[in-house]
Structure formats: C-alpha cells, structure tokens
Please model this.
Amino acid sequence: MFSIKNNKQDLLLEALDNIEMYINDDLNKINIKDNTYRKKNHLIMNKIIKISELIQSKQNEDLLIYGEIMLCTEKLSDGFTEDRITKTTSNNKLNYIAKSINNMSEKLQKSLYTIDKRLEEYSNQNFLNSIDENMFRGGDLKKLTLGINSLKEEITQQLKTTYRTSLVLQKESARLLENSTQLSTSTTQQVASLEEVSAASEEISTTTSSNTELVIQMSKYAQTVKESITKGMDLASQTVKSIDDINESTNAVQDAITIIDQIAFQTNILSLNAAVEAATAGEAGKGFSIVAQEVRNLANKSAQAAKDIKTLVESSSQKANVGKNAADGMINEYNNLNSNINETDKLITQVVKASKEQKNEIMLINNTISQIDSLTQKNASIAENVKNISMQMNNIANKNVEIISKSQFKGKENLKIRDTPFDNKYNGKEKRKA
Model:
C-alpha cells in the first residue's frame, strides 16, 4: 500500500511539475506518462489531465493571437498601419489588448492619412486647411499636429509677406526698369552731347590759341607802329625846327627887302633930284637927265622887285606858319596817337595775358570735359548694367508673383498694392499740390 501511494504521489507531482514547466515555457507540450489512472478514472489525475489539456489548448489559442499582435506591432514600428488583428481567443484580456491595438492602428492610420493629405495639399501650395488638433489628447503625436499647424501658419505668414513684398517688388522693379531705361537713354544722349561739347571745346581751344598768336603778333605790330610814331614825331620836330629856321631866314629876307626898298626909294628921290638938276642945266644936262631917268627906272624896278619878293616872302612865311601849325598839330596828333598806341599796347598786353589764361582755362575745361566724358561713359555702362539688372529683377519679381499667386492661403485676397514707400516719397508732394 505504501509503495502504491508513493507512486501516485510521484505521478501527481510529476504531472504538476510538467504543468508548471509548461506554464513557465520550459516545455512546449505537457506529457503525462502514466495512463493507468486515466483508464481507471482516477479523479485527481483526470482533473489534472483536463486542466493541462485546457491550459495547453488556451496556450495554443493564445499563441495565434500573440503572433498577430507581434506582426501588427512590428509593422506599426516599421510604419505600416493597415494591418489588423483578426484572431480572437477566450482570453478577454488578450482580446481587449488586440482590440486596443486595432483601434490604435486604425486611429493612427486615419490620423496619418489626414496628416499626409494636408501635407500633400501643402506640397501643392494649398495652405487653407489645418490638421484637427483634437485627434490626439497629448503626447508627441499631438505635438506633431501642433507643429505642422504652426508650420502651416508660419508658412502662411511668410507667403503673405513674400506675396506682399513680391507685389511691391514687381511694381517698384517695373518703375525701376522704366527709370533705369530712361537713365540709360539719357546717359547715352549725354555721352553724345559731351562728345559734341568736347569737339567744340577742342575747336574753341584751337581758335583761342590762334587768337592768342594773332594778339601777340598785333602786339609786335603795335610796338613797330609805336616806334614808327616816335620816328614820325622826331621828323615832325625836325620839320618844325626847319620851318622855324625858314621863318628866321624869311624874316632876314624881309629885313633885307626893307633895306632894298628904302634904297630904291632914296634912289628914286635922287634920280628925281638929278632930273630936276639936269633940266636946269639945259642942253648940257640933257644926257645926265637921260641917265637920271634910267636910274629912276631901275629904282622903280628894284622897288617893284622888292615888293614882289616881299609879297612872296610873306606868302612863304604864311605858308611856313601854316606848315608849322600843321607840323605842331601833327606832333600833337602823334602824341595822342602815341598815347592811344600805349593804351592799345596795354590793352593788347592784357588781352595776351587774358588769352593765355583763357587758353589755360580752356585746356583745363578740355581736361575736365574729357574726365566727365570718361565718367559719363562709365555711367552709361553702369546705367546699362542697372537696366539689365532691373530687367532681371523685374522678371524675378513677376515670376515670384506668378508662383505665389498659385498658392492658396488665408488672407491672400486682402493683399493689395497700396501706397508704397516710393509712392509716399515721390508722389506725396504732387498729391498735396493737386
């Protein structure tokens, strides 16, 4: 009896050990070696067998749902949300876990679909819709939705700013392009005008140099004229002196003529007296009377000659006085001419000095015009570059406006180009004047 009891107890303990090892996953299957008591309907052993079979059956049943749970969670960790746990078990806790995992997968799938749809809209420049921030109560996924919505708002604000800036840039770049085009045209015209001015200035410089040479030549001629005037004055002075000498000689001749006239008068008186005495002498004095008559005739002729000479001398004296007066007037005129020539020479000297200074100033102006022409040509090149840059900027602005105008975001319809800083700066005065 004792050995039988001990054997039963050992079998029970062995069976319980197998069950314990199976529960602890040390065995894959519960093995009951002794079937004797099963056949004899041993109550305890049969119960243990039923329990082991039930445990093993539930374990196998749970293994199926465990496998789906593992596959589903592994796919979730890899980013796949479409898998669901389809198996069920008599273990309500496992069923609840499977249901929770399915709900989680479904919610994640719907949420990620919504997020993906919004992100696809955002990638297509449609920023009108936001993500429902109540999809998640908290945690990193809620932070993700809040972050995406915040990014959407930030992009919207940037789009507003960029769109507004692009519209202003489009308007101002068009204005800049217009102004730079005008500047380029004006600068080109200015270059052409400066070239004409430079050519004219060169001609003026050449003319001024020629005039300076002519004025210097005139100064030389004036000096020659001045020397000729000096010589003329000397000759006029000599003429005056000669006329004075002639006057003195004429005066001496007049004195001699007066003496001759007196001698003729006395001779005539003596001839008359001789004629009277001859007449008194009668026939004897007749020859003497003839001689006296001839002497008287000679005296009359001498008196007449003296008278004629006196008339000629007086005429010569008058003409000499006229010549002297003319010579004195000529000397005065020579003095005036000399004075005028001196003033003219001073003026010519000033003109020569001014012409030289003018020549230097014109040369300086030519150099300045050349520098201005060079700078203007550089400005023309810069203006052309500004025009090209303005054109590129205008094209970029138009492209930006075209691109951003395709984007959809809140507040877009309220963005209009009003007065820009350029308009306020340059049109304000015109508005006030109007």
Q: What stands out?
A: Residues 1-5, 37-41, 419-434 have pLDDT under 50 and may be disordered. The chain has eight helices and no strands.
